[in-house]
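YaaC-like Protein: structure, please.
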Amino acid sequence: MTLPIHIWERGYRFTSASYVNKYLHDHYETLALPNPTLQARDKSTAFMYYLEHGKSYYSLSSTSPLEIKPLLLFYGLTHLLKAALLTVDPFYPDSTSVLAHGVSTRKKKKQQYLFFQDEVKIQRNGLCTHLSEKLFHVKQLENKKISMGDLMECLPELDKLFYYFRPTKGTTSVTVNGDTLLMPSNISIQDIKESFGDDLEIKWNNNMISIQRYNKHLVFPIRSHSDTDIYIPSKLSYIHFLPHLIIHYLLLYNLSMIARYETEWWGNLIRSSPTHDYPLIQSFLQSTLYSGPSLIFDYLESNQEKNPLLE
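Here you go.
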């Protein structure tokens, strides 16, 4: 299976050095960063290469065997995330502490290991926390332990598959009408206020909750599965406030580690598919092949929309 061309068509303009230079310059100027002209000129080439190399990894992963697919997808997403990072942080990497992945997992898996029950731990330093803070303004993630099952349940693209393995759905569909969100009234108002902030206008209408002045660039806990399908977790916890891209990063990190260091378990999973792990992992790898680049371009385009100089 090859990647649909339209995903990468969204990034064609970033293959122009003059466009990228202006794109970065205007962002750095808007952020009041020092020497925006110099910084943009210095980082334009790195920005373009991160996108180009990321695309190469994704292209290879689309036709690669499952055994190595997690490795290619993880490094593909990492390169795309670094490109996005340069739009807000021209000094990356300013120290060796941000070069590590910023995540750890149990190296030796226990007997009867299940991926769904496995955990990753977010480190104080490293790319994961740096991305979360710089791109999404999410802090205080260090030392958090998060299970793979909880991460997967955050993804609406896996919800239909999960339904075969558990009785309840992890996400609830919401409707977007301009700057208004409509969602079922069984979702806690307190959860909504904590999710979106107290300054929103919340109304009830025909058993639906209407949220006015919705910001279309809001990242959490909204999840998008396509241009028209928008979801919110049925029950909210701090995990649901992780940015969508960070969820993909954490899942791919652990899967890439397993593909590298847990060869016997990984091989058995692929060959015999003994548990629910296999269809969930397979479905995730298939969906992240498309949603990873799409989410990156959503981020880059949202930055462009906020800056009229680039329209």
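Notes: Residues 215-220, 306-311 have pLDDT under 50 and may be disordered.
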